[in-house]
Amino acid sequence: MSKTPDVRAVLHAAVEAVGGEERPGQIEMAEAVQHSLASGEHLLVQAGTGTGKSLGYLVPSLLHGRRVVVATATLNLQHQLVERDIPALKDAARKTMGEVPHHAVVKGRSNYACLHRVREGAPDDQGTLVDVPEGSLGAEVVELREWAEEQASAGHSGDKDSAPSHTDRAWRQVSVNHRECLGASRCAHAQECFAELAREDAQDAQLIVTNHALLAIDAIDGVPMLPEYGAVIVDEAHELAARVTQASTDELDSAMIERAARRARAQADGQSADDLSDASDALNDVMVRMDEGRIDAVEESLQEVLELIRDSARATLSDFPKEDGKSEPDAARQQARGMVDDIRKIADRMASKGETEVLWMSAGQRDKRLHIAPIDVSASLREKLFGEKTVVLTSATLKLGGGFDPVAQSLGLKPGDDDWSSLDVGSPFDYQQQGMLYVAKDLPLPGRDGLEEAQLAEITALVEAAGGRTLGLFSSRRAAERAAEVVRERLPDIDIWCQGDAQLPELARRFAETPSTCLFGTLSLWQGVDLPGDTCQLVIIDRIPFPRPDDPLMSARQRLVEKRGGNGFMNVAAHHAALLLAQGTGRLIRRATDKGVVAILDPRIVTARYGSFLAASLPDMWRTTDREIALGALRRLDEAAATP
């Protein structure tokens, strides 16, 4: 039996395989992760941009000898791991290990084409199987069906990410969720099923890549989505609490109930489906009289209608014909039953809401909708994830206010406990030399009515000095659009792109390819966008990104913290803002050769008491409040970038 190779040797070979450069922080991280996996001690690792953290945890995971799950927040990172990092690592490891462990990807069932639906058709609104929808949707569905058959013939994955370009509506015509699935024991196409084959493949894998949501469903909700495992690496761990909350959030509106009732009417006996439809109308009548926002005390009329929906859905379920196990499975009936059961469970959850959950109503363009979510997921994470598995959490932003405790607490780890440790391996970048943080101390405080002339004039001056090359991160769509409008008018020679002008990947591509342009946008640009080089030499942040005071979930969390004797503002609002600020400022320096300025137009960073906490959460750039110094630095960068 060959000796297990040293983590440093495999890491060195893997870094060479991807054409990277070995970093001291990467080595330190790999050895710490190896120790954590061996000892069972949880680990938090902050690994700055450029560290190469993916290989820093993949190498010890591959060498661990037992199954490790890697969970990411974004598809981009998952794609990078599966398509680049893991194959390169395995190729490198073969030189020192001989045989390398198998790896697999696990996604939710709806991410795979369903061959039963492809071949038998999808139910329409009445629950009748339709071969091909009409119009442009039909053309998309035909193309997806042909692709799915080609995937089945070639033994490929049938994964949504490899499908031809399509709309979400078209994909729903060729896929099913877990409730709509007939089950492997009853489906005539089970032997070819893409989702089942993916799960069988995962059973043989030592390294499994998945996402935060599936990890939450498996570990916290107790729904088996993954093969048995003892250790998990959570990348992009600053997103974990939000993704777990999102996975545990339910929604209900009258249209959902009516749609379920319509499907059930075609499949179930009796009149209960009509009663469910009436309950839908009753919910709409109640919500019309309600204001959007958090619902602290459920009024009697809403309580009664939620109970009516629950009971009507339960009665409807009892009217479905009993399955005898002999007749051919009915996909339309299965889907209708699943929709009604979803309605029953959600209505029951809302009707019996306790202190640990928050209920609120939102108002869309067409209708109003109820939402329910857990206020705090830390206890669930501590008991069901950290209490059962060895967990390594890593991200470029895990330290807030200069320490790990705020993030650790939000995830259920208690400061001072000896079951976890933390490590900051730094960044290979010299932030003091590469970046400047300018806070516009002399600007007025941001107002409730959006950007005022002082902020608009500052944005214009900064963009002009930078010669474009600006990523503008704004707290609202209205602010981004207003800034774009004004800067276009005042600097007509500089192209300004604004979120909404085109799809975000297209805007990012245009921005990256034309360095003298600007890209203005909101939350989706604050994190996960990689724009290295001269294309981004100025990042503007219009204000501290505190959550809105009327945000139902955040305000409920603040109130819960205060009820427990803590500081709700610091523990919720300030932590939320610090994390986004760290992510936003992190857009500037993406490579060792990048240089630039982050300009924050909110003086509270240097004037408010909580400002020091926020400032300590940011990269260690050279800092100034002198406007002329910042403008001068931008002009010099512009000249250097324009010089051949």
UniProtKB/TrEMBL annotation:
Its EC number is 5.6.2.3. Residues 12-313 form the Helicase ATP-binding domain. Keywords: ATP-binding, Helicase, Hydrolase, Nucleotide-binding. SUPFAM superfamilies: P-loop containing nucleoside triphosphate hydrolases (SSF52540). It catalyses: ATP + H2O = ADP + phosphate + H(+). It is an enzyme of class 5 (isomerase). This is DNA 5'-3' helicase. Residues 320-331 have a biased composition (Basic and acidic residues). The keyword Acyltransferase does not apply. The lineage of its organism: Bacteria, Bacillati, Actinomycetota, Actinomycetes, Propionibacteriales. Belongs to the helicase family. DinG subfamily. InterPro entries: ATP-dep_Helicase_C, DEAD/DEAH_box_helicase_dom, DinG/Rad3-like, DNA/RNA_helicase_DEAH_CS, Helic_SF1/SF2_ATP-bd_DinG/Rad3, Helicase_ATP-bd, P-loop_NTPase. Its cofactor is [4Fe-4S] cluster. GO terms for molecular function: DNA helicase activity; hydrolase activity. It holds the Pfam family DEAD. Residues 317-337 are annotated as: Disordered.
